[in-house]
Design brief:
With about 260 residues, this protein is α/β, with parallel strands linked by helices. The chain has a single domain, classed as 3-Layer(aba) Sandwich (Undecaprenyl pyrophosphate synthetase). The protein has helices at about 1-10, 35-45, 50-70, 90-110, 125-140, 155-170, 185, 235-245, and strands at about 30-35, 75-80, 115-120, 145-155, 200-205, 220-225. A 6-stranded parallel sheet has the order 3-4-2-1-5-6, sandwiched between helices. Helix 2 (about 35-45) packs across helix 3 (about 50-70). The protein is globular, with a radius of gyration of 19 Å. Residues about 1-10 have low confidence and may be disordered. It binds 3-methylbut-3-enyl trihydrogen diphosphate (2 copies) and magnesium ion.
């Protein structure tokens, strides 16, 4: 996908796949919990929000590298259903930042054939942001490049409850037989419908928890936790995560193939 992308719609510097990586064994879908912005800022004596600003640059860099290296989908955790618990000023800053970045980056995303989607309960988001989200989603829907999913007011439990409610409503309406509910029909009600499950989950800043991220979809993801703070997550850190992934043996409950 990205090879074709690279030849038809190049950006100024397409990064070649590092020789250490096996192009045949890249993850199709990478998910990332972008954590540590606040600590990055504190280390520099800056307000937390400056960490979020730096985090945007890190996300842009990561998206571009994933696209250049031929990864099919990148799903990033930008704002959780629990993040409303932060001070009002920080929440407002983040919402304004999302909107500003979306306005600024949309043209580039279109040019680079990125298909962007926002996963989560978008209704409580500020109206202006929702409009930008609708516009970006629509304008990039037909793009042939990397699938870029931004989890915004996303919570795994919220998503699962919503899916259950939607199926229950169809049962109540008499249009769905409860016996017909299986893993595929359940997954089809999730925000990630149509996307393969992530193969690799990266969490930065050393925290060893899921924080309510993609609870269903991460069932068999390989986990890579790095102490690197999100704004410092660079090409080397991504390479490190992908090498770690390529060193894993994925058994999916089976047994290792005989040597
Ligand atoms: C992640 O960085 C960004 C968001 C959750 C929006 P944090 O803001 O959680 O940074 P730390 O964990 O406080 O360092
Ligand atoms: C997870 O980070 C959410 C995002 C990265 C958007 P948090 O910083 O909110 O997670 P906790 O509070 O440490 O679990
Ligand atoms: Mg955090």
């Amino acid at each position: 996908m990205s090879r074709a992308l690279a030849t038809t719609t190049p950006h100024s510097h397409v990064s070649p796949l590092p020789a250490a990586l096996d192009p045949a064994r890249l993850p199709t879908h990478v998910a990332v919990i972008m954590d540590g912005n606040g600590r990055w800022a504190r280390q520099r004596g800056l307000p937390r929000v400056m960490g979020h600003r730096a985090g945007v640059e890190s996300l842009k860099r990561t998206l571009r590298l994933c696209s250049d290296w031929g990864i099919g989908a990148l799903t990033a955790y930008a704002f959780s259903t629990e993040n409303w618990n932060r001070p009002g000023e920080e929440v407002s800053f983040l919402m304004a930042l999302f909107e500003k970045v979306l306005v600024r980056e949309l043209e580039g995303l279109e040019r680079e054939q990125v298909r962007i989607r926002f996963l989560g309960d978008l209704e409580p988001l500020p109206e202006g942001l929702r409009q930008r989200i609708a516009e970006a989603t629509e304008r990039t829907a037909g793009n042939s490049g990397i699938h870029f999913n931004v989890c915004t007011n996303y919570g795994g439990r919220n998503e699962l409850v919503r899916a259950a409610r939607q199926l229950a409503q169809r049962v109540a309406a008499g249009t769905l037989d409860p016996e017909a509910i299986d893993e595929a029909s359940f997954a089809a009600e999730l925000h990630t419908a149509g996307e393969a499950d992530p193969d690799l989950l990266i969490r930065t800043s050393g925290e060893q928890r899921l924080s309510n991220f993609l609870l269903w979809q991460l069932a068999y993801a390989e986990l890579h936790i790095t102490d690197v703070l999100w704004p410092d997550f660079d090409q080397e850190a991504l390479l490190h995560a992908l090498l770690d992934y390529q060193g894993r043996q994925r058994r999916f409950g089976g047994v290792a193939p005989a040597a």
